[in-house]
Write a structure and sequence with these properties.
The structure holds 2 protein chains of 2 kinds. Chain A is α+β, with helices and mostly antiparallel strands. Chain A has helices at 20-25, 63-81, 119-140, 143-148, 150-166, 169-177, 182-207, 213-222, 227-247, 249-255, 257-265, 277-280, 286-291, 304-308, 328-339, 352-359, 374-396, and strands spanning 49-50, 98-101, 106-109, 112-114, 272-275, 347-350, 400-406, 413-414, 420-430, 436-443, 449-452, 463-468, 472-482, 489-497, 504-511. Helix content of chain A is 41%, strand content 17%. Chain B has a two-stranded antiparallel sheet with strand order 1-2. Chain B has a two-stranded antiparallel sheet with strand order 3-4. The chains are: A alpha+beta, B mainly alpha. Strand 1 of chain A pairs parallel with strand 5 of chain B.
């Protein structure tokens, strides 16, 4: 703001009732003039909308490009290989290592099996993923955007296809401008076919996470898979083709909420790709700089950083939402600096604060020092705490479970001999991959007996045994009858597995009786 | 903060973009042009809406909306789904029609399906009197307990459902007609009988006069020990369950001017399979009796219904 002292005017009078807008655009603010970057835009209707500027990023080699290659290969390998991994869970459960079995409401991940009632594990993982993104942002800036976001990975892949078919930056631009002729049609046909093949493989791999991969693979090509499989593949093929092949940086700039959120999370101590304007400006070619070395900075205005940018921005304009911090401009600039014999790092991974410190001639702090700030540590602590809590819950969770729902209508039933009957729906949950015998017993409620739909009242007892199938929930309707005069009271049902484990669980419920 | 004014609007220095002219606590909004493809998505929604208007009911007219080329309607959709559901149920209904009801419990799967179907039919046809939980009200029998006026095995329940209770003009209907004792017995005598009836379930002190009056007037239907008689639909007076309340006042009222409940004969209203399913449901509520055991007991022989 132009008024750092607060609402006090130059003559010392405290201004209270003046609207804030006048403080911004008031008589004092516009006293100094500046030259805007471009001439004022006219109020023309077509300016309401802006055509996408085509981006033809040039190939560049360097450290960050190699890191990106490595991450591209690793992330794509994870995506395509994971559904084919096997994991032995015994004869009663699927052997796919990672499987989201929506039909049977199970989620398998290696040794972990998640039931719908344990969805808090999934919720916990999602919260960890969110906090993990915060952590990454506060520690290393927009590294997710630059390296491992699927949109980035697939866009990178498609841009390699562009270079392979159309050639590098200049050839691509030339072909884009060229009129439609046999050569252009052929090239576009080949390129879009490759786009489509990649898109199909992307959508095709996705569905393998939701069913047994080898079976689904065979069924899919035999035309026997469920319609939803074909629909999903069609939709994902279309979205990959459009978003990866054509929308590209438009997704990052206009569709994705994450860059906007990160804009609010980044500060002057966030690791970002920074152009050291104090070193580069004013820009001038090598020839000019040789004539007047004192007048020009290190930037030779070769525009290599702009040429290689996959989102088509000019990093020298400063931090901006279009920068996904892929650092390819660092690679490009470092090569140029090496060629003209100037020190590397005109564009560098550096915080704005460190950049200022460097400008002031201070020793540059080591990058890891940025990790030892309060914010990353708090995020890391929270992330670890949730992770440990989930692991603890995972280790402690029971593989047997009883839940009881008492009939509410009617709450109790007077029998002809004066005794009182209550009915309950009991659900026994066997979370192990083998059938188990379970014994239900009454805990409390003296004199009471129970029977089920399958047994008769004459056989009523204090406990009963059920065979619960593997990995399943069994609902049992239980009638509990208590002698005449029994008052309403709390009691519990317990369940015990009749095997070497003797796992048990219990559920409190209430026995209702007529008053008086 | 650098500012450039044009027509009251400021140009932002960093981006060279005009602001929209609004400002909130120093925060301003840039008038960045929208991406053009965004406009195309807007046009696409327009095309979509036109296609939708042609294909589906859309324009509201005076009596109804335009029908749409596809002829789709939510009512038609429902009818289609109902027809599909009926088709799915057809094999079960055919099997249910073939099986005699006394053999239904042997087929666990079919029994379960019948109970589920019966629950649905119960909620449409029976809740009005017997209640959603089948617990009844005063004068409307509770179907959950183990007390049955006319028998509680599957066959007896089915018979009751088909023929109803005291259904006028129906010669197969279950009928019992307890006489009104007002005028036959004096009010003191009715009081004594009431005390005796209550004493059968330990709720009052009997008197010799009451016992004598009971033996002379009531035992023929309700039995010498008050256990009732299902052939006549005579209630068990010795148990804890009272259809018309068990207070002395209500018992006296029931002796003097008995109320007689009625139930419709469902035979002509519901198809035999639905009635079978209803019987299975009522039987499943916890008080259903075993057919074989009941048949062995001559006192409650339900094989020969009146």
């Amino acid at each position: 703001m132009s008024n750092p002292e607060g609402p006090i005017t130059e003559d010392g009078v405290v201004k209270t009732n003046e609207p804030v807008s006048s403080a911004v655009a008031g008589p004092r603010a516009p006293t100094h003039r500046h030259e805007p970057h471009e001439p004022p835009r006219q109020h023309l209707p077509e300016k309401l909308f802006e055509k996408r500027r085509a981006v033809f990023p040039q190939h560049v080699d360097g450290f960050y490009r190699r890191v990106k290659y490595a991450i591209l290969v690793v992330t794509l390998a994870i995506y395509y290989v994971t559904p084919w991994l096997r994991w032995d869970r015994g004869p009663y459960a699927p052997d796919q290592a990672v499987l989201v079995d929506i039909a049977n409401r199970r989620f398998y991940m290696f040794g972990i099996e998640i039931w719908p009632h344990e969805f808090y594990f999934v919720a916990g993982l999602l919260i960890m993923a969110a906090i993990g993104l915060f952590l990454v942002t506060s520690a290393v800036g927009r590294a997710w955007c630059g390296y491992s976001c699927p949109q980035t990975v697939w866009t990178d892949l498609f841009q390699h296809v562009d270079r392979w078919i159309d050639g590098d930056r200049n050839a691509q631009a030339k072909l884009a401008k060229a009129p439609w002729g046999p050569r252009k049609i052929a090239k576009r046909g080949v390129k879009w076919s490759i786009y489509l093949a990649i898109s199909f493989l992307t959508g095709g791999a996705w569905i393998l996470y939701f069913a047994d991969a080898p079976t689904l693979f065979r069924e899919f090509f035999a035309g026997e898979a469920a319609p939803v499989a074909y629909i999903t593949v069609a939709i994902l093929t279309m979205t990959t083709f459009t978003l990866g092949g054509f929308m590209r940086e438009q997704v990052c700039i206009y569709m994705c909420p994450w860059p906007r959120i990160q804009s609010a999370m980044l500060d002057e101590r966030s690791l970002i790709v920074t152009y050291k304007d104090w070193r580069g400006e004013p820009r001038g070619s090598v020839k000019k700089a040789e004539k007047e070395p004192a007048k020009f900075g290190d930037c030779i205005d070769c525009l290599q950083c702009v040429a290689v940018c996959p989102t088509g921005i000019d990093i020298r304009e400063g931090p901006q939402v279009g920068c996904i911090t892929c650092a390819l401009c660092i690679d490009a600039c470092d090569r140029v600096m090496a060629e003209v014999g100037r020190p590397r790092g005109l564009i560098d991974y550096i915080t704005l604060e460190d950049s200022q410190a460097e400008a002031a001639g201070e020793e540059r702090k080591l990058p890891w020092r940025n990790l030892l700030r309060l914010r990353p540590i708090i995020y890391f602590g929270t992330w670890c705490a949730i992770g440990l809590a989930l692991l603890f819950a995972l280790g402690e969770r029971s593989r047997i479970d009883i839940s009881v729902a008492a009939d509410r209508n009617p709450p109790f039933m007077l029998m002809s001999d004066g005794s009182v009957r209550n009915a309950y729906t009991i659900r026994l949950r066997n979370m192990e991959s083998r059938p188990r015998q379970m014994q239900i017993a009454l805990d409390g409620l003296p004199g009471a007996l129970m029977w089920t739909d399958d047994t008769r009242r004459e056989d009523a007892a204090r406990q009963l045994v059920r065979n619960v199938p593997t990995d399943a929930v069994q609902a049992v309707r239980v009638y509990v009858v208590a002698p005449a005069g029994t008052e309403g009271q709390e009691f519990a049902f317990t369940v015990t597995s009749l095997d070497e484990g003797r796992e048990s669980d219990s559920s409190d419920t209430r026995f209702d009786a007529p008053e008086g | 903060m650098a500012n450039e004014h044009r027509g009251g609007k400021r140009v932002d220095e960093a981006t060279g973009t005009e602001t929209v002219g609004h400002e909130w606590d120093g925060i301003e909004e840039l008038d960045t042009p929208m991406p053009r493809w965004w406009l195309w998505t807007f046009y696409a929604t327009m095309v979509w809406s036109l296609v939708f208007v042609v294909l589906y009911p859309a324009w509201p007219l005076i009596n109804q909306a335009t029908a749409g080329v596809l002829g789709w309607s939510s009512r038609g959709e429902l009818a289609k789904e109902m027809a599909e559901a009926e088709e799915l149920k057809a094999p079960l209904r055919q099997a249910l029609a073939r099986i005699p009801i006394e053999r239904l419990p042997e087929d666990t799967e079919m029994m379960r399906a019948a109970v589920a179907g019966g629950r649905a039919a119960y909620l449409v046809n029976c809740v009005q009197c017997h209640g959603a939980g089948a617990a009844g009200y005063e004068g409307y029998p509770n179907l959950n307990d183990d007390s049955w006026l006319w028998g509680g095995d599957l066959k007896a329940i089915e018979y009751t459902l088909v023929n109803g209770i005291r259904q006028p003009g129906h010669d197969q209907t279950r009928t019992s007609m307890m006489p009104a004792f007002e005028g036959i017995l004096s009010s003191e005598e009715i009081g004594a009988v009431a005390d005796y009836v209550l004493s059968l379930s330990g709720k009052a002190q009997p008197s010799p006069a009451g016992a004598q009056l009971y033996a002379n007037n009531c035992a023929i239907c309700h039995g010498p020990t008050g256990t009732g008689l299902r052939e006549f639909g005579a209630p068990n007076l010795a148990d804890a369950i009272w259809l018309y309340s068990g207070t002395r006042e209500d018992v006296i009222s029931q002796i003097a001017q008995p109320r007689h409940g009625v139930m419709p004969a469902w035979g002509g209203r519901l198809d035999p399979v639905t009635i079978k399913m209803l019987a299975a449901y009522v039987h499943s509520l916890g008080g259903g009796e075993d057919f074989v055991e009941v048949a062995e007991d001559p006192a409650v022989d339900v094989d020969e219904q009146p």
